[in-house]
Design a protein that fits this description.
This protein has 158 residues and is mostly beta strands. Helix content is 12%, strand content 51%. It is built from one helix and eleven strands, in the order αβββββββββββ. Strands 1, 2, 3, 4, 5, 6, 7, 8, 9, 10 and 11 form an eleven-stranded mixed sheet that branches. The longest helix is centred in the N-terminal third of the chain and has 19 residues. The radius of gyration is 17 Å and the shape is globular.
């Protein structure tokens, strides 16, 4: 009985890890999360890290999702004390042997024209589209508004 319980605990832990990481060729998509949104909100922010273990660069060129009218990759910046966002129309480079991070306060995913709110504890399915790796289905975990920062991210909430 102990062995069975231990095996179930190990499988449960493994499922948790795999739910936060998605692999496609040389790319590893880690910790995709979105923040919960209040009812009636039309936009929501998403965050993740893409690690490229290969010798060739790649580029995240688009994201598809059925709960939003469109999904954009945004850059955030502050100039002369004024914060602004702009869409990265050429996508997000993922360097060979490096990482690209979409995080609160920095580059991020913007879900626009939401058809339903993001609710804490639920998940949001999406497909990341890379120039080289192609289509990568991922699941974003929905974290509370103002919740803890996603693992590995260094900026404050968006």
């Amino acid at each position: 009985m102990r062995v069975l319980l231990l095996a179930l605990a190990v499988l449960s832990a493994a499922a948790t890890v795999s739910a936060e990481e998605f692999k496609a060729g040389d790319l590893l998509v880690m910790h995709p999360v979105v923040r919960a949104t209040p009812g009636g909100a039309k936009v929501g922010g998403g965050y993740l890290t893409v690690r490229n273990t290969g010798s060739m660069p790649d580029r995240l060129v688009a994201i598809e999702n059925s709960i939003a009218g469109r999904v954009e990759i945004h850059a955030s910046s502050t100039e002369n004390g004024i914060a602004s966002m702009r869409e990265l129309t050429d996508g997000l480079p993922v360097p060979a042997g490096g990482e690209a991070t979409l995080s609160p306060g920095g580059n991020h995913v913007m879900f626009v024209d939401l058809k339903a709110p993001f609710r804490t504890g639920e998940t949001v399915s999406a497909t990341l589209i890379f120039e080289r790796a192609g289509r990568v289905p991922v699941t974003f975990a929905v974290e509370p508004i103002g919740g803890a920062r996603p693992a590995g991210l260094t900026h404050q909430g968006h």
